[in-house]
Amino acid sequence: MIVYYEFSYDQFEPKKDNTYRIVIKTKSNGGFEGYSGAVPSPLGNAIRDEIPGVEQAISIFSFPGNGQIDVSVVDPKGRKDILFKKQENVYFVDRNYTHLLDYQWLAGDPTSALEQPFRVVLTRSMATMYFPHQKSAEIIGRKLRYDDMDVTVTGIIQDLDKPTDFQGKAFLSIQTANTASLKEELMMDNWNDWMAYSKLFVTLAANANPEQVGKEINRLYSKHRKNEGYFSSIEFFLVPLADMHFDFRTQSVDSRIVNKSTLYGLIAIATFLLLLGCINYINLTTAQASKRAKEVGIRKTIGSSQKQLILQFLGETFFLTFLSILLSIILIPMLLQLFSAFIPEGLHSSFLFQPRLGLYLLVLSLLLTTAAGLYPAFVLSRYKPTQVIKNETSITFGQSRQAIVRKTLTVFQFIIAQFFIISTLMISKQLYFVLHADMGFQKEAIFTFDIPRDSVQTLRAQLVQRIQAIPGIALVSNGFASPAMSGGAFADLSYHNGKEEIKPQAQIRWGDQNYFKLYEIPLITGRIATTSDSVTELVANERFCEELGFKHAREAIGQFITYNGKMIPIVGVMKNFHAQNLHAEISPIVFVNQPGSTFHIKLLPQPAGTNLWQKTIAQIETIFRDNFPEEDFAYHFVDDSIAKFYAEEQRTALLLRWATGLTMFISFLGLLGLVLYTTNSRIREVGIRKVLGASVSQIIHLLSKDFVRLIILAFLIASPIAWWAVHVWLDNFAYKTSISWWIFALSGIGMLILAATLLSVQTFKAARANPVDSLRDE
Asked: ABC3 transporter permease C-terminal domain location, by residue (predicted)?
């Protein structure tokens, strides 16, 4: 369901095969290569006017900043307006956007609703929120106020009910973005810069070549670009709409990108589990074949052909398979809750009732029936009536070919089981390593919260003093983000060493003088930058100094760096720390002496059994609300934020633990089937050996040694495969744990112990059986 759902994203658009997103590939002067799904704002109009082969150029703009906007419903009678704070998914578009997605219009004229400035089209869900209990036609003409901008509702469209990355709920006419208040913020005439709130899609003519259109766009941009800026090269190219959901280069805050390798991994796990189920069915069915031998003989005696018997046994397998699928469908709602961490937000149990999925389940039933039932059906249907009717227990089930097949299948089962065990242990070891790694700064008992960016510095200073006076607070700092953050904040920095200009790709942090003390970031040399309203000093990390060519950190002290056109001296060098997760290497970082809108709070240790931290945070919230009554107080602990860096790995580890448990359970069922088969086929041999004086321990050793050899063989095959897979996975981390030998030893010994326990129970039962029962017919 997950795989089908993710691959169905944006497959409903009428022109999906000819629609592309424009993406930028950049190279900095320092050699850093990056991608962006944002484009210069005027590019869309220029493409529409100047490049042949482009049917539509669809520009989409969100509000500057975080894309959120306060919306008020204007009361037509002049009474108090109704305020909806921090509304999301509000975009500036033209009418081509609604044509691209083929919206169903409930009210308004699709051809003119977005032609004029200060017009907005709402989805039905958002219209219902703003204007409850009103019909779509009644909402046309009503007024909404976006911040200080009044707009008129000119259309209502039905919400998209299919998987899509286009999450818009309200659409302002793009002419509105050209008004004086927004034109500069959205950089509508700026060719030399772009921000995440500007996206561009193009729909090409049927005979247009995407690569050629990409070249034309690059020529067009070169014509309008006025200076080189920070990047040494900028290249535009087209990403097909079908690939957008899987392209991390186009990721933004309002989109959810999925890794295709994760989906292929899910398919692989599902396939392995199904194969294990088929193998078990084969082993268990053939192991119990003696119980049906007489039935086969009687049926053949009264006229049944081998073909009829094969169809009968396949029919039984299909019936069991079909019942299992019905049971799985019944369990789906519970499983969606159990695995909620893996389930996309829009995926519900109703997704099961799509016609294609029903056809898939039927085909799956037939494939599983063939894979699991065909071999047992041939084995059972080949018994000779004269043998089985005379005495079904005298049939020889130990033909070498069948034994080889069963042993091969069992080895295959345990290869998969060992692979999952080793992989799970190694991933868990790496997760422990990254979550407990020394980041180069203190991360425990520290949380952050933000205040409005336009707050004056005097108010920030007052807040620092008031919060610092609260019992339970160790230290307060005011600045920008914590040392480690998802994504990155980069600065345009350069240094001229007398021969050449060096432009390292450096991240930036800023804050007051308490920042270093709060996070316990050590200085190697120099001093902390003095707090100032403007940037006058900076502290660099060791890696930044290396990028500039200094062999010793002290050589960087006093050197001037160009920052935003100003010459800023380096006054200190701090020890390297991880500014992102451990997937990435430590990057060059600079710290500038400027306060910001983020508060960093270090708490005193909390005595066991107390709620000191909750009380302290509640007091801070009270101070926050005294100053910002209309804002929401949201705080985040730094160590929790760092743990979220590895959310995907944690989900992978959880999924692998489930898969490992299921694999081991199924594999031991398969082992049980083979043990049953072997003990049944050798029951007379055991009887004769006991009559001749063999002990119970000797019989157990005789019956178990072959199985132990199979498990050891599986371990020897699985170990190098698992080592290679884990090695490839660990290559995604710049800093990683070692592949320890004890992981493999623990996996192999643990599997042997579990298998030996299972074997001993069944073989002990066979060894203790009375030989008279097995030899009475001889």
From this structure: 268-384, 661-771
State if pTM tops 0.85: no
Tell me how far apart the alpha carbons of residues 199 and 221 are, in angstroms, rounded to a whole number. 15
Q: What angle do CA 608, 613, 618 make, to 5 degrees?
A: 150
With beta carbons less than 8 A apart as the criterion, state whether 538 and 559 touch: no
Q: What are phi and psi of 566, to 5 degrees?
A: -110, 150
Q: Are 195 and 64 contacting, i.e. CB atoms less than 8 angstroms apart?
A: yes
User: How far is Cα 680 from Cα 392, in angstroms, rounded to an integer?
Assistant: 12
- Kindly give the interhelix angle for 400-435 and 696-730, rounded to the nearest 10 degrees: 50
| Bridge pairing between strands 506-510 and 446-450 | unpaired
Query: Beta strands 589-592 and 506-510: pairing type?
Result: parallel
> Which residues does 570 contact at the CB level (< 8 Å), separation at least 6?
526, 537, 538, 539, 540, 556, 557, 558, 559, 560, 561
H/E segment holding residue 73:
strand 69-73
For residues 737-751, average pLDDT? 89
CA distance 278 to 492: 59
Closest CA to 127 of 147, 102, 149, 154: 154
List pLDDT tens digits, range 318-354. 999 999 988 988 898 888 888 887 788 888 877 777 7
Count of C-beta atoms within a 10 Å radius of residue 75: 12
pLDDT band at 684 (very low <50, low <70, confident <90, very high): confident
Mention every residue, 6+ apart, whose C-beta is less than 8 A from residue 227.
192
Structure tokens, 650: 């944690």
Assigned token pair, 499:
């021969």
- Which pLDDT tens digit goes with each residue over 631-665? 889 999 999 888 888 877 888 888 888 888 888 88
The first and second tokens of residue 69, run together, are 């906007």
How far apart are the C-alpha atoms of 36 and 21, rounded to whole Å?
A: 11
